[in-house]
């Protein structure tokens, strides 16, 4: 990334589109196609949009935030006992400053918690040491945490599937084209807490500039703001301010690769200048580990060739984890 992007200004005029996805469930193909068209425009531009009409009850979103706050409010000793170093499949607590998303920058001013698909040690995929497969770590002192997070995880998995049907339509494909990808997906829920930015450390970030390396990221943020999306046209940052009742959805590097770089995986970062504690809950929906990601047919013009060889979801993820920091 060019150093200029670190100092680039806030972009006041540009904004991200709001896409109502409710019509993806419509029986009218024209209404479904209209959502596909809106998704296509967003994906070709920055690969970032606000998702409205998702149908997930506000009560579940509120409950997920309440449990997230309760988790990070636990005493340090209790959080340390849940540390992800105790997990073979990247689950559990990550301490403040435990990740540096922007190479060469200061460690991120955030703490996190990872939750994945719950699989017992006896599951053949776990026994075989498959990537990110295994049991979660659940905090014993928060009785509402596990049921709430499981319900939230299930709801977001459903939304991930819905959005992949929309992405298929956006690529002029039948809407069930990615059903194989959506079968038994490798999804990860990440709870994040960003303390207020420190005025005496202007270079410090809540989350340093990065792209997500998977498929779809579906982010619920609280009302503090702080997420910024890079705008190459102006060499500035669009502030993705929260819009109540919506998720911010963005595409990761795997979808860029899958579409021969037609769809975009865009640099983003977090700086919590609100003066308050910020909480966010990104859900990374990456699909079935055995699914082969190869250049989508409708993403090749006449005479064009795929830029990348075919790769399984699992191999792509593993190589990105190796190249960057585990997240
Ligand atoms: O907290 C946010 O708003 C964004 C988090 C993020 O970009 C990530 O976890 O990849
Ligand atoms: Fe991200």
Summarize the structure in short.
This protein is of the alpha+beta class and 327 residues long.
Write out key terms for the chains shown.
metal-binding; 9 helices; binds fe (ii) ion; oxidoreductase; alpha+beta; five-stranded mixed beta sheet; ethylene biosynthesis; 2-oxoglutarate oxygenase/decarboxylase (ethylene-forming) activity; binds 2-oxoglutaric acid; 327 residues; Jelly Rolls; eight-stranded mixed beta sheet
CATH homolog superfamily: B-lactam Antibiotic, Isopenicillin N Synthase, Chain
pLDDT averaged over residues: 94
Poorly predicted sequence stretches spanning 5 or more consecutive residues:
none
Total count of helical runs of at least 4 residues = 9
Query: What is the SS-derived class?
Result: alpha+beta
| Spatial sequence of strands, sheet with the most strands | 2-3-11-8-13-6-5-4
Helix content: 25-40%
CATH fold field value: Jelly Rolls
Strand element count: 15
Structure, described:
Residues 185-287 form the Fe2OG dioxygenase domain. Its cofactor is Fe(2+). This protein is 28% helix and 20% strand. Helix 2 packs across helix 6. The protein has helices at 4-7, 29-45, 58-72, 76-81, 124-127, 145-170, 179-182, 253-258, 313-323; strands spanning 10-11, 18-20, 48-52, 92-94, 111-116, 188-194, 207-210, 216-221, 227-231, 236-239, 247-251, 268-270, 278-285, 292-293, 311-312. The two termini are 20 Å apart. The chain is built from 9 helices and 15 strands. The radius of gyration is 19 Å and the shape is globular. With 327 residues, the chain is an alpha+beta fold. The protein has an 8-stranded mixed β-sheet. It has a single domain, classed as Sandwich (Jelly Rolls). The mean pLDDT is 94.
């Amino acid at each position: 990334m060019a150093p200029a992007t670190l100092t680039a200004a806030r972009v006041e005029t540009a904004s991200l589109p709001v896409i109502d996805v409710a019509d993806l469930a419509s029986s009218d193909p024209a209404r479904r196609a209209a959502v596909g068209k809106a998704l296509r425009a967003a994906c070709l531009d920055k690969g970032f949009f606000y998702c409205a009409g998702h149908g997930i009850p506000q009560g579940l979103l509120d409950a997920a935030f309440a449990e997230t706050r309760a988790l990070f409010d636990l005493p340090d000793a209790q959080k340390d006992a849940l540390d992800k170093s105790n997990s073979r499949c990247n689950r559990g607590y990550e301490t403040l400053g435990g990740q540096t998303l922007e190479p060469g920058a200061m460690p991120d001013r955030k703490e996190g918690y990872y939750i994945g698909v719950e699989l017992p040690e006896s599951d053949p995929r776990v026994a075989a040491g498959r990537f990110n497969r295994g049991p979660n770590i659940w905090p014993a002192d928060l009785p509402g945490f596990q049921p709430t997070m499981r319900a939230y995880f299930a709801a977001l998995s459903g939304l991930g599937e819905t959005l992949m049907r929309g992405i298929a339509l956006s690529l002029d494909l039948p809407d069930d084209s990615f059903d194989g990808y959506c079968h038994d997906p490798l999804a990860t829920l990440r709870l994040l807490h960003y303390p207020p930015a420190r005025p005496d450390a202007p270079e410090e970030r809540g989350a340093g500039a990065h792209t997500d390396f998977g498929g779809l990221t579906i982010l619920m943020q609280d009302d503090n703001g702080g997420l910024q999306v890079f705008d190459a046209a102006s060499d500035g940052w669009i502030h993705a301010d929260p819009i109540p009742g919506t998720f911010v959805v963005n595409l990761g590097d795997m979808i860029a690769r899958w579409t021969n770089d037609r769809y975009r995986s865009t640099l983003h970062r977090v700086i919590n200048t609100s003066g308050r504690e910020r909480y966010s809950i990104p859900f990374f929906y990456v699909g079935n580990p055995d699914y082969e990601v190869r250049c989508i047919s409708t993403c090749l013009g006449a005479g064009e060739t795929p830029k990348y060889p075919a790769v399984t979801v699992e191999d792509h993820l593993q190589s990105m984890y190796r190249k960057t920091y585990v997240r």
